[in-house]
Every structure is written in C-alpha cells, then in structure tokens.
Amino acid sequence: MIIASNFKTNHTRKSTASFVNEVNDFLKSNDISNEVIVFPTATSLDEFDTVPNLTIGTQNAYAVEKGSFTGEIGTTQLDEFAIKTILIGHSERRHVLGESQDEIAKKYAFFKELGYTIVYCIGEPLEVKEAGLEKTLEYVYEQFEGIDTNYENLILAYEPVWAIGTGVTATNEDITSVHSAIKGRIDKPLLYGGSVKVANVREICSLDGVDGALIGTASWVVEDFKQIIENTKDL
Ligand code: 13P
C-alpha cells in the first residue's frame, strides 16, 4: 500500500520539517512498512533523515537541469536534496495552471529518462463523469497520450476532478469500475485521490484495484495523516 500526502500550497518550511519528522518517528516506532510519500511545497524541500519507506517528492519541476525559467525549479535544485520522486499531471496543474498534455508528456519523458519515480495523475471533470463510464475512460485514456506506461518507476493516481477538495468522494462503484478498467490496460500501482478522509481511507484502500491513496486536505494535519497511516497499516 502507498499512502501519499500532497501539501499543495500549504505548510511552511518550518511546519513541513516538523510534519516530516513526526511522521518519520511514527513509522519507526510503530514498525509500519507501507510506503509513505510526502509532497511539500518547493520552498520546503530539504534533506530529511527518514526511514527507507518515507520518501519526499516534489509537486512539480520544470523539465530542465537549470537555466532561465523564472519561477521554476529544475533538477539542480532537486539534486541538492536527493529528491527523486515527482508528481506529474495533477488536475490543478492541468486545469488551473493550464499544462497541456503535450507539456505533461515532455515533462514525463524528461524525468523518466533520469529514473525518477513518477506519480502520474489522471482524472475526469464532472461533465465527463456525468456522460458515463465509457466517456470517462475515453477521457482518462487520452491523458496517457505520449506517456510510456511501461516505465518501471511509474505509480498512477486516479483523481476525479470533481472529487478533489470538494468533500465529495467517489463512490466505491465509481472507484472500482475505473480502477479495474485502467488496471486491465496498465499493470502499475494505482492510487485513488479525491476527498479521501481519515474515516474512509481504509474502506477505499480495501477496494479491488486500489493500491493506496493520494490525499490533499485530510492529510495536512499531522495527527490526521498519522491516523490515515495507522488505519491502512495492515492492508
Ligand atoms: P483532496 O484530498 O483535498 O480532495 O485532494 C486530493 C488531491 O488532489 C491529492 O493530490
């Protein structure tokens, strides 16, 4: 099972350090073996002393080593902290920041070439969901355009846009039908994301075809995130 926290635009450098250290101590003292990934803001990346199953990843980076790309970070900045895990294709980058599939595919190819673990996000907006499962899958499969799905260090995350940050979690039926279809095509770990909470994480992670969760809002309070890890530790 993989349990991941996406901080989005939350936490400071100081509070990130205390969050990571607390999660690390929790994993260590409870002998928890599930994989845990934390994606802090770029300004809070650092070299943390963690157990092997706690990884720090970056929410984003530009597909470059270094150069003149105002506001972006490249691999020089990631290498400083030995960051080798990246989130690509998140719905907020697609729909709020306007990243195209073409840009996403280029970014994917660049970080794949460098051997990064890539958590690749896919998911449909509400109007597509309302058009039915077939349309949903069609939309989701288009998000694999230009993406090498055989890449060994690939983790997928199905995050329906309408479930992100809304408090509306996809139903178990929604999750299992989309997950089983994706898994039928692509044999990679597949996380679910979208209003996962302390109270429903165990049920969701127990569903067929769900290999873990990518959590925003409910993961930002460290006590809640530890409870999420606790609730899924034997899955
Ligand atoms: P929420 O858990 O806040 O719905 O966000 C999910 C998400 O986007 C994780 O990447």
By secondary-structure content and strand pairing, the structural class works out as: alpha/beta
The strand count comes to: 8
- Show unreliable segments: none
Approximate shape: globular
Can you describe this structure?
The protein has helices at residues 13-29, 75-79, 91-96, 101-113, 126-130, 133-142, 172-185, 201-205, 222-231; strands spanning 2-6, 35-39, 54-56, 85-88, 117-122, 154-158, 190-192, 212-215. The mean pLDDT is 98. The longest helix is centred in the N-terminal third of the chain and has 17 residues, at 13-29. By secondary structure, the protein is α/β, with parallel strands linked by helices. The termini are close together. Helix 7 (172-185) links the parallel strand 6 and strand 7 (190-192). The radius of gyration is 17 Å and the shape is globular. The chain is built from nine helices and eight strands. The strands form two sheets. It has a four-stranded parallel β-sheet with strand order 3-2-1-8. The protein has a four-stranded parallel β-sheet with strand order 4-5-6-7, covered by helices on one side. Helix 6 (133-142) crosses helix 7. 1,3-dihydroxyacetonephosphate is lined by residues 6, 90, 159, 164-165, 193-196, 214-218.
Summary, kept brief:
By secondary structure, the protein is an alpha/beta fold.
Task: Please name the defining characteristics of this protein.
single chain; 235 residues; alpha/beta; four-stranded parallel sheet; 9 helices; 36% helix; globular; binds 1,3-dihydroxyacetonephosphate
What topology emerges from the helices and strands here?
Layout: E1 2-6, H1 13-29, E2 35-39, E3 54-56, H2 75-79, E4 85-88, H3 91-96, H4 101-113, E5 117-122, H5 126-130, H6 133-142, E6 154-158, H7 172-185, E7 190-192, H8 201-205, E8 212-215, H9 222-231
Parallel strand pairs: 1-2, 1-8, 2-3, 4-5, 5-6, 6-7
Helix pairs in contact: 6-7
The structure holds 1,3-dihydroxyacetonephosphate.
